[in-house]
Amino acid sequence: MLLESIAFLLGTTLMYATPLIYTSLGGTISENSGVVNIGLEGIMFMGAFIGAAIGYYTHSGWIGFLAAGVVGGLFGLLHAVACISFTADQVVSGIAINFLGPGFALLLSRLMFDGAAMTLPLPLDEKISRPLNGLFPQNSFFDVILNRYSTVYLAFFLVLVVWFVLYKTKLGLRIRSVGEHPEAAATLGIDVYKIRYMSVIASGVFAGFGGAAVSVAIVSQFRITLISGQGFIALAAMIFGKWKPQGAMWACLLFGFAQAIVVFMPRTGIEVSSQLLSMLPYILTLILLVVFVGKSVAPSADGKIYEKN
Amino acid sequence: MNNYDFDQIAVEMKGITQKFGSLVANDNIDLTVHKGEVHALLGENGAGKTTLVNSLYGLYHPTSGDIFINGEKVVMDTPNVAIGHGIGMVHQHFMLIKPFTVVENIILGKETHKHGVLDMERATKEVMELSERYGLTIDPTACIQDITVGMQQRVEILKTLYRGADILILDEPTAVLTPQEILDLIKIINNLTDQGKTIIIITHKLKEIKDVADFCTIIRRGKKIDTVKVADVSESDLASMMVGREVSFKVDKEESEPGDIVLEVNDLHVKDNRDIPAVEGLSLKVRRGEILGIAGVDGNGQNELVDALTGIRKAESGEVLVNGNNILGLNPRGILDHKVSTIPQDRQKRGLVLEYSIAENIIIENYKKAPFSRKGWLNFPAIREYARKLVKEFDVRPDDENYISGSLSGGNQQKVIIAREISNNPDLLIAVQPTRGLDVGAIEYVHKALVAQRDKGKAVLLISLELDEVINVSDRIGVIYEGKIVGEVKAEGADENEIGLMMAGGSNS
Ligand SMILES: Nc1ncnc2c1ncn2[C@@H]1O[C@H](COP(=O)(O)OP(=O)(O)OP(=O)(O)O)[C@@H](O)[C@H]1O
Ligand SMILES: [Mg+2]
Q: Does ligand 1 have an atom closer than 6 angstroms to the CB of B436?
């Protein structure tokens, strides 16, 4: 019974942490290049819709997932044009995207699905696959934890990739340099705008993946309540993780765990108000932000407008 | 010095004019620099020196004029073009990325890599080879934020050499250095010219020009005045060419007439950022009508002392009395209310909000008071009028109170701070390195202003790394060493060697 509970909690943690990991990786890339992107919530919303809708029409969760990345990237591009080329306030542009993403997704949904604010569900075999299915005896300890959708493994692999790119490659050095001191980077002939564009677009792609990781893996369709704050939680995780991919991953796991508890409590028979319980991840976000925001150091030029001479 | 080849012209700038709106920062300037020469640029704060070299480095695009490098006409669109033509620049305000290591900073933009993956081993090896060749000692794996300013500068120089620079521009390299570090830099410069490098150096210190430069071009208010052979002119010739009048290096002042005690510090203990004791049982007194100068080598507790006196840093123990009232533990505003004004060491970090206009910076300590605000509303006409008056009085250039402080030249930023602090009419004025980066004319001005405060019966605490300045301006000198005042002498007829010995921890007997 205890083992079962542990397995359930860990498995559910992995499941819920996954979309957060994609999105917080996006935030990490963008903010390391010096651009704050609070529009990730809206992009995630859009990604969830595109993933489910394209997945439904193409009969492939994977194509939906990739399409969500592409559309997310386009929204990233929009943010980049506003904040980098037109030196708009990054928070304001982010807020605009948070309105635009859901609005656009709903409009498309109503156009494509007979006026419904949700997509038609993908059949089970068209969703993202579970490659480890059958490896462990069904409902055994390891099966419950590790038998997950491919998107889960991909998320952790991408943490490694983003870490490697940021800290071990030429590109990563440049990304971090324009996030710390764009003027200094510019004097060395680095094209600050180009690096920032790439990073912000990448953040959109990741947030798009994050949204689709919910709609074509965790569930099998898009609903308007599907993404409600995960984008912001992912940003909080990035801050809590000190703007580092591995840090963000641990923080996402923590939030995933909080979500797992929300799902787990009713099974224990302990009476807790479900409303109070579902507040848990958000309260955790607030507490962590209050306690840690002042202490962790963002890239120095994060959120600051940089203008070419 | 004396390595130049008169037949080879490395840099030629012809008729360079640079306008910012209505301001003409460079007005038809010509500059010729021979290969292997050290060429100094001299001019008052805001004369347009940085602007001129920024055009050479491709950061600014001159309104008109041509640039020739080794005889070839080059349009300097971006720093990349300049770098490609063997030009490197060490900026007045360092361009280093603080959390990066020394090697990362040096290779950034020209990384050693295999298929995009950084090859730090090779990078470190190449950097260390350069470092040894030119005698530029560095710690390759240290982060910039943990190394001394002197080493940061060597990193900046290595950055240019790593890119194969043959022509190095050094914009006020010595303004932030300690006297010992300046001697090291001079050695480095000689090393570089020995190996065929050409150097353009901007400095306000005439002695340094005499020490390292072959030629000197003087710029006044954006116009070129002359280029002279340094060996043919004296320091005072240079000074008067630059300011357009005679400059006195000696501060004229009467014997001081000390009155009541204004500042009394007893057994003060303060820790530094790393939690190590920096000020350890320091005591001092400053009276009305006198200037107490604190001499000492950098890092002996000066910064922590100032931070504690101004309420930025908590003291561990001790007592600080201003006019008999304890101010220890008050916040900076509370201390201001005790009529204590400070000219801080770091004008960009502590002295000014760079994004604000001159006028806004001038009232930033008094914005709550009439006539600058009424019932919580700022009264901009009154603010501007007051600022306009100070800008005129303190000769801030350009004389426009709406100008954004961050675009002012370094020296003029300092004048804005001085104007604000002195016009607060304090009982105690704390001046920390008040003439850092200032031209000789402005230095003369600041020194006079400090003495004028004293003559008005105010107390002045002057903390400076420049021994000359301390001896020249102060009435009494306290020497700080390892967080304590280890000796005190009268400034009149003070013996530089004796003070130097105390600064190094030698005894006073
Ligand atoms: N980017 C800019 N925009 C507007 N004005 C500028 C800009 N850069 C410089 N200026 C103005 O041009 C003039 C020359 O400035 P510059 O920085 O070249 O002076 P400087 O000779 O280097 O002085 P200092 O010795 O104080 O560093 C100043 O009045 C300055 O305010
Ligand atoms: Mg300058």
A: no
User: For A253-308, how does the pLDDT look when each residue is reduced to its tens digit (9 = 90+)?
Assistant: 999 999 999 989 888 888 888 888 888 888 888 888 788 766 668 898 998 889 87
B339 contacts B322 by C-beta, under 8 angstroms: yes
Residue among B16, B17, B50 whose CB has most ligand 1 atoms within 8 A, to mutate: B50
Nearest CA owner, ligand 1 atom 24: B45
The answer to whether residue B164 neighbours chain A at the CB level (below 8 Å) is: no
Instruction: Write out the residue range of the structural domain in which residue A36 sits.
Output: 2-291
Let me know if residue A146 belongs to a domain: yes
Contacts of B89 in chain A (CB under 8 A): 187
What's the rounded Cα separation, in Å, for the pair A16 and A19? 7
| Ligand 1 lined by B25 (C-beta under 6 Å) | yes
CATH topology of domain B9-243: Rossmann fold (3.40.50)
Ligand in nearest proximity to the CA of B412? 1
Q: How many CA atoms lie within 13 A of A91 on its CB side?
A: 3
Rounded to two decimals, the pTM is: 0.82
Residue nearest to atom 19 of ligand 1 (CA): B46
pLDDT values of chain B reduced to their tens digit, one per residue, 509 residues: 677 888 899 999 999 999 998 889 999 999 999 999 999 999 988 899 999 999 999 999 999 999 999 999 999 998 899 999 999 999 988 899 999 999 999 999 999 999 999 999 999 999 999 999 998 999 999 999 888 888 999 999 999 999 999 999 999 998 878 778 888 999 999 999 999 999 999 998 899 999 999 999 999 999 999 999 999 999 989 988 988 887 777 788 888 888 999 999 999 999 988 788 999 999 999 999 999 999 988 889 999 999 999 999 999 999 999 999 999 989 999 999 999 999 998 888 889 999 999 999 999 998 888 889 988 899 999 999 999 999 998 889 888 999 999 988 878 898 999 999 999 899 999 999 998 878 888 888 889 989 999 999 999 999 998 888 999 999 999 999 999 999 999 998 888 888 888 888 775 44
Judging contacts by C-beta atoms under 8 Å, the chain B residues touching residue A184 are: 95-97
Cβ-contact B204, B437 below 8 angstroms: yes
Q: Which fold has domain B248-339+426-509?
A: Rossmann fold (3.40.50)
Of B108, B110, B118, the CB nearest to A177: B108
Mutate to test the pocket of ligand 1, among B17, B19, B22, B23 (most ligand atoms within 8 A of CB): B23
Judge: B57–A168 Cβ closer than 8 Å, yes or no.
Answer: no
Q: Please count the structural domains in chain A.
A: 1
Q: Chain-centre distance of CA A304, in angstroms?
A: 23
Chain A residue numbers with beta carbons less than 8 Å from the beta carbon of B95 are: 181, 183-184, 187-188
Instruction: Please check whether residue A180 lies inside any domain of the structure.
Output: yes
Chain A residue closest in CA terms to B78: A189
> CB distance B109–A189 less than 8 Å?
yes
Which CATH number goes with the domain that contains A65? 1.10.3470
Per cent of chain B over pLDDT 90 is: 69
| A306 is a domain residue | no
CA distance B44 to B42: 7
Of A180, A188, A189, the CB nearest to B98: A180
Beta bridge partners of B378: B373
Residues spanned by CATH 3.40.50.300 within chain B? 9-243, 248-339+426-509
